[in-house]
Amino acid sequence: MFLIGLATNPLFLFVAVWSTVVALYAAGVSVDLFPFPHPLTIRVLLLNGIAFPLGYLTWILLKGLTPQDEDRPAFLSRPATPERIQWALAFTLLAGAAASGLMLYRASLIADHFRMTVADLFARPALLRFGLVMFVEASVSHSSWIVQMISLTSALFAVGFVLLGVFLYLDRTVRKYAFLCVFLLMGLAICLMNLSRYDMTVYVLYVIFSYGVVCVSAGEKRFRRVVKDLLLPVLTVVVIFTVVELLLRKRGTYGCTTTAGGILYSFYWYLASPTAALNEFLTDFPGAFDLGQNTFLPFWKWLNRFGLLPAPEVSAYGEYVFIPYPANVYTYLRPFYEDFGIWGVAVLPYLLGGFLAVLKGPAGRHVSCLYLYVTLLVPILFSFFSYPLLSSQFYIQIAFAFLLFRYDLRAVRRVDPANVAADAIWAGA
């Protein structure tokens, strides 16, 4: 499946995303919506556009020159079967239920702060979002027990979406759609409690990317099956974007008179404004670098707990700039430049591209590597927006995947007789 292969290729995703958002940003500049870019912004964008592809292609070339032992078994791994994946999914669903309960408790704490009931708080989405921002900002330096438990349970629940993508491909019964519906409904509930379109989009992308990698690895050629399995997750993202937009009523922020116009303009702003905000940041940058505080925030926080580093001075949401509407995300390039200057923009995307190139092969053979690969593909897709590796939850998810879900995917093609028939049809076409 050529299209599935492209959709799970890091280089294609990077080039497609950045060419699109830069074109949209340039269109905003051309109509005087955004200020003309600073020369440093142009250099940073050009360097980013070179560094990641160069890192990816370099390591793909090196891998091609080095023999790969694909038959070597992974340490303590078991063959991935629908039955094993089903039990793992049930376990992660329990974690999702626990995360939902903890988030309701957090909402009750916020409601108590504003002296109202939880129902009244949920009836006022803008106030709920303000309370969530206050709660998260307070935990940047010192996390409370509830923040830590939400991170742990949410991380385990997120792993379930990667496993769900594998299960959608492996299973041949209607139970896979039952699991899909339950996961999506629970994910929707969690995202509505957080008023977050981003989280639901990430969940669905985990499903799509993991399904796609397994499809490519197994040589899947039945396009109708792919559409059938992935249609509901894609529609869920459309629903959550629309519902959150209606709840927050952002069309008034952008001066749009119609709901449809507000949704479309909000989508444009979502894509183009981070680059414009980055330009404002680089234009006013004071010149003092933070040497890793932003890029490696979770590790900085742990070292701070042992008294080895000062407390981080980082905002979880970023300060707002008005260009002319408010924006508080600055692409994934801001922490790189803020910590290490132009060298950070040159080296870190290069290393990220190289690491994804190294993971590309093992991702089709082992679930733990698949999880790491997928969770890095999502930041590439959202690299135009923000830097998502600020949260400890990202690293907790990876630890769970390698410790608890060590399944071998290399037998998938051999146990799928439908692909044998598909290969025969494909070869005779």
Tags for this model:
429 residues, mainly alpha, two-stranded parallel sheet, two-stranded antiparallel ribbon, 2% strand, disordered C terminus
Helices and strands in order:
Layout: H1 2-7, H2 10-30, H3 39-65, E1 78-79, H4 82-113, H5 118-122, H6 125-138, H7 145-170, H8 175-194, H9 197-218, H10 223-248, H11 259-283, H12 297-305, E2 321-322, E3 326-327, H13 333-340, H14 342-363, H15 367-381, H16 392-404, E4 407-408, H17 417-428
Parallel strand pairs: 1-4
Antiparallel strand pairs: 2-3
Describe this structure in words.
The protein is mainly α and 429 residues long. The protein has one domain (2-65, 76-428). Helix content is 71%, strand content 2%. Strands 1-4 form a two-stranded parallel ribbon. The protein has a two-stranded antiparallel ribbon with strand order 2-3.
The class by helix and strand makeup works out as mainly alpha
Number of DSSP strands? 4
Span of the ends, CA to CA: 15 Å
Q: What is the helical fraction, as a range of percent?
A: over 70%
Mean pLDDT value:
85
Radius of gyration: 22 Å
Main beta sheet? 2 strands, parallel
Query: Which stretches are poorly predicted, pLDDT < 50 over at least 5 residues?
Result: 419-429
Oligomer: single chain
- Please give the count of helices: 17
Short summary of the structure?
Helix content is 71%, strand content 2%.
